Description:
Elements: H1 8-13, H2 21-36, H3 42-57, H4 60-76, H5 79-85, H6 94-106, H7 116-123, H8 128-134, H9 138-149, H10 170-191, H11 193-196, H12 201-206, H13 208-226, H14 231-261, H15 265-289, H16 293-311, H17 314-337, H18 345-374, H19 379-399, H20 409-419, H21 426-469, H22 476-485, H23 492-519, H24 522-528, H25 530-536, H26 538-574, H27 584-598, H28 606-632
Amino acid sequence: MAAPRSDPSALLANLDPHASVAQRHLWLMAVLAWVRGNGQDAHASVGRIELLLDALAGNPQQRQAWHSWWATFRQQMDLAPLLADFGFAPRTAFLSELGFRLRNKLLPGTPDTTHPSELFSLLFPTASDAHWIAALPPSLLQRLHHVLVEPIDDPPPRALVPPPVARPDPWEQALTDAILFSVSQVSATGFAAEIRVRMSEDALRSRTFLTLPGLMDVLQRALGTHGPHSPEATEAAQAVRTQLAACLEAANTVYAHLDEHGISVGIVFRLRQLRERVQRIHHLLDCLLSPNRPQAAATLLAELVNVGHRSRSVRALIASSTHLTAAKVAERGAESGEHYITRSPAEYREMLGNAAGGGALTALTTALKFAVMALGLGAFWYGFWSGVVYAASFVLIQLLHFTLATKQPAMTAPAMAAKLKDVSTAFALEAFVDEVTHLVRSQTAAVIGNVAVVFPATVLLALGVQQLRGAPMIDEATAHYVLHSLTLAGPSVLYAAFTGMLLFSSSILAGWVENWFVLHRLDSAIRYNPRIARALGAARADSWAHFMRQNISGFAANISLGFMLGLLPAVLGFVGLGLDVRHVTLSAGQLGAACASLGWEVLRNPALWWAVASLPLIGALNVGVSFYLAFRV
Length: 633
């Protein structure tokens, strides 16, 4: 319903209390859009409300039409569900809420509704609405209440007509019902099995969630008997507040269990919902017991607008529900990363030896990769079997306790971030600088060990294959293709940065898998499950449980990285994104195979030196991008 943006009388002229539901709500949307303006100036919005009230006060007929409109609105809208549930998930599950928010973003809303939460989102679609609502001065709020809510004075009733029967205030009733609904939700969360079994023994013995409904019954009786502003109601409300604090304290003990036994996104989501519902109950109690009801109502309305804006954000939902998982992933990465930082000459030499072993195995990986290429498979199956080769190679490197240099940064970055928790003193800052020095030295040793061995090892392997087959391991065309693909003048730098993202992604997936393994206590299941124990024997089952607990993260990282390096270029090529991978160790191995195929004449080929020049940048971007992303987490 269009209306002039500068004339409130034109808006009021369109007021029709007998219109359809959709038309009445469209009129209200138009009024609020006029009040909002461009959403940049809250004081201008306050001024428009004053103009609207002036126009309404000066026209008794329109004011009477408004009160008829408002009476119809109150009959059709139950405000209690809005006050209690707006901004909360309709189902207490993370994936359900994620789907709900995505649907709200993608599907348009309709004003033809009697659902208060749906209408509220249409009436206040932007966060700027909370600013002008909060800017309303107390005098204007009192005037709003008088003009818009209080009925027009009627002539006194005749003596023979009995006085009207006193009815409960609709606003008080809506607030009371909303508090009851919210308290019921809090109790239901505390009764949920997945929450209760993770509480501490002291929290369970306190029976805080069992006591809460009884205190709510006391509050309801005090409100019905003595009114919201009575000492009895105030005392009962305080008892409810105290019990809510005890419920939160009991629920917070669940986090200790999660920290020790693995993070569940679903449980974290429910605990966050519980905390926010307790906050909502406090706001509702403040509004119900406040002597200045218009001011309290405006504060509650502004809070609902803010909640509505946050509840539509998919990013906020993911961030708030997964922050503990990210923290646990980083914490487990920090524990693993400590093993990759050398602090003594002996550890440095050990790192060089492990990296040399990783380089030697990568030479074999390179040969197998070219063997897959020689099969002439389609893009998908070539990527799949390349992924199998990479994953098997990386797992073998892990089991032999060798090192692949580029997998270290995603592990060492959380370890360095942990050192930053306290650098407030000069000693702590100096210790952190020392750790950075150790880290750089460790990473340099790993890269040098990989590259310095993989190149000559691949050359020797290729020459050995040539002696056995009587033909080069790769033909001349493939060798020239390798030189061309690795040239510094091409997109190798971009591909190296993309590979760094894949290295980081594999570490995140590894942390998630390890957290899932711990959360579901699979190591205990392997150790004590009767069928597994009978099949393996008690000693072997215990050994397998320990082995999987120590290596599950590495398996997940290596297998996922292998398939990402192999499959993603094929998948991205299918959708038109020509991204490829450039891994410094694998690239050095491919370069060695190309040199073995082309012979000594390759030294005169400028393409070789362009490819050689790209290797340091590939290594730096593999390491740097992975480290940066992991450090940010």
